[in-house]
Design goal:
Distance between the termini: 46 Å
Low-confidence stretches: none
Number of strands: 0
Helix content: over 70%
Number of domains: 1
Amino acid sequence: MDAMASDPNAQAQMLKQMQDPATLKMMQEMVGSMDPEAFASMMAAQGVQMTPEQAQQAQRMVKGLSPTQMQWLSRASSAAAQAQAAYRAIKRQLQGRWILVLSLLMLLLAFVLRHYGIV
């Protein structure tokens, strides 16, 4: 796992930087000017495997994004990162509490069955 994914402070700092339009523009220009092999290896370091052809296509797509689209993409990735962090926190809380999980699942099943008039 890479260091950025394991350090919440580094993630928060990166997400804050991604809200700055100047930083987004700089990143867009950097990605657009990279060699496809270098971009593919950078993505592999982040855990995303892609061929140089896929990297080249991704670079073309990033170059074609407007500043508004880049900001929307940044906000969407920020929301996804927050959702992932919440999921991990909930998962950590529920690990080892299998009786609680089982009872919650049974309660959910009861609501669903009641909603459809089966019970």
